[in-house]
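Hey, resending since the last one bounced:
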Amino acid sequence: MAFSSGNSSGPMADINVTPLVDVMLVLLIIFIITTPLMSHKIQVELPRANLDQNPDEAEKRSAPITLAVTEDGSLYWNDELITKDALESRLSTAAQQTPQPPLNLRGDRTTKMSTINEITKIAQSQGMLDIGFVATKDRGQ
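The structure tokens again:
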């Protein structure tokens, strides 16, 4: 604000509009530049998403395989204790199924990463394509 003690009867309070005009001009230039970018010159009819699930597709999906690895290296195929040799044969059988079931790999918090890596390599060598790692979300700490 500008104050003046001139001949007027009181202080003069005027708003300096120069910064306001500068900001408005910058915004105007931005809108002039971006407006042509928002319009598409070639109109394309985009496909519509069909979110309805077909009951036949739900039946075709096979149940995921849960493979748990404990700290001492014990393997559990859907809560059933197995050996590494049996794991390889079961994974090769599961890899040949159509559609191939996903493999969910669960490890203890103290399981060595080298053990998890070894199991993952075995699964990949047997032809498993969908390998996921199961973890729990930390609660607000």
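The mean pLDDT is 84.

Sorry for the duplicate.
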